[in-house]
Specification:
Blueprint: H1 2-11, E1 18-22, E2 26-29, E3 32-35, E4 43-47, E5 50-53, E6 64-77, E7 81-83, E8 107-120, E9 123-125, E10 132-135, E11 138-143, E12 146-148, E13 159-162, E14 165-175, E15 181-183, E16 188-197, E17 203-208, E18 217-228, E19 234-238, E20 246-260, E21 264-267, H2 272-275, E22 284-297, E23 301-306, E24 314-325, E25 337-341, E26 346-352
Parallel strand pairs: 1-4, 2-5, 3-6, 4-6, 5-7, 6-8, 7-9, 8-10, 8-11, 9-12, 10-13, 11-14, 12-14, 13-15, 14-16, 15-17, 16-18, 17-19, 18-20, 19-21, 20-22, 21-23, 22-24, 23-25, 24-26
């Protein structure tokens, strides 16, 4: 309640800038909504201390712990910590056993309908669910974050972006039990750079096509990043029985893989084998560029382009790819290879593993 009172005072204090300071110390919170719009602009929240998400799940009636909503001009900084205390809640997650994931655990920090937002120099640890989500936002910058959770923690994505435009995430260290960064439906003009990812499931576009009301994704640029000991490198994943949407104008450039299981992967059959779903994906993937991707793979198939038989991938380019087989690969006697189905990529420059036909 004290946080909300302080927020309301800062939000409505004037027509100029205002600041809310969370001082050094430890502060326990349940579900907390920082509601706009604000007459003050911009509003700065400086986190100096440690915010702890309550371990009592009854404190969370919604899907997030901290929610910033309907704010134009928001800056969050200060070097503080948000501890989701997820260890007490992960046992209740059904997100690994069910595609429906009917009871996702609370997100640590959610930004919804925030315009001109900046988040920098904060630390997120052990979220119950996702660490941060950016939804229906415009012109949003995230930089110099540290996000950490155990590699076996369920559904603890680092940053998830959806239905947002002009989002930039840079110079951050992320290691979780799921995607370091996931770019969901309706995202446009997203720039990801300078990310150190691992452990986790890599940097993903998707999953796409799970729900009928989803929108297309376009204008995604991922660069100058490294992934270490992740289950995937750079991935595009779509569900069967999807709406007819598109994922296009996508570039992955200057990426280093260290002991990564699936360095380059398009998977248009996401979870279909595990859950025996019928149909095909109707997500059209096109104009995708992989440039200067290098490093090591712990699986023999370093490149997998598994596209939809109904809407095959088009305009896929692989340029200057140099991925070697790790000494830790369990099948060292098998050669390193690439696999393509319903895709006819264009190859330029060095190709290791050899180009698929």
């Amino acid at each position: 309640m004290a946080f909300i009172q302080a927020w309301n005072a800062a939000c409505k204090s004037s027509t100029g800038p205002s600041k809310l300071i969370i001082p050094p110390g430890r502060f326990m919170v349940g579900e907390t909504i920082f509601q706009g719009p604000c007459s003050s602009k911009p509003v700065t929240v400086e986190i100096q201390g440690t915010i702890l998400a309550n371990s009592d799940m009854s404190e969370f009636t919604g899907k997030e712990c901290l929610l910033f909503q309907d704010v134009d001009g928001l800056t969050i900084l200060g070097g503080g910590i948000f501890d989701g205390q997820g260890q007490s809640a992960w046992q209740y997650s059904n997100c690994r056993s069910s595609d429906n994931c009917n009871s996702p655990l609370p997100i640590s920090i959610k930004f919804q309908k925030v315009t001109n937002g900046v988040v920098q120099d904060i630390n997120l640890v052990n979220s119950k669910g996702f660490h941060m989500t950016i939804t229906s936002c415009n012109n949003f910058v995230v930089e110099r974050l540290n996000i950490t959770a155990p590699g076996n923690s369920p559904n603890t994505d680092g940053i998830h972006i959806s239905r947002s435009n002009q989002v930039r995430v840079s110079n951050s260290v992320i290691g979780t039990g799921d995607d370091c960064i996931s770019i969901g439906e309706g995202s446009t003009n997203v720039n990801i750079s300078g990310i150190t990812c691992g452990p986790g499931h890599g940097i993903s576009i998707g999953s796409l096509g799970k729900r009928p009301e989803e929108n297309s994704v376009s204008g995604i640029f991922v660069s100058n990043s490294s992934l270490t000991n992740t289950t995937n490198g750079v991935r595009i994943k779509t569900f069967h029985n999807s709406p007819k949407i598109e994922a296009s104008n996508i570039t992955f450039e200057d990426i280093t893989m260290n002991e990564v299981q699936n360095p380059i992967i398009i998977d248009q059959h996401y979870r279909s084998k595990k859950h025996s779903t019928g149909g095909v994906s109707l997500v059209k993937i096109s104009d995708v560029h992989y440039k200067n991707i290098r490093g090591s793979s712990i699986s023999n198939v370093a490149i997998t382009l598994s596209c939809s038989s109904s809407v095959p991938c088009e305009g896929i380019e692989l340029a200057d790819i140099d991925i070697t087989l790790s000494s830790n690969c369990l099948k060292k006697l098998l050669p390193l290879s690439s696999s393509c189905s319903f895709a006819k990529p264009v190859f330029k420059g060095k190709q290791n593993p050899p180009a698929c036909e």
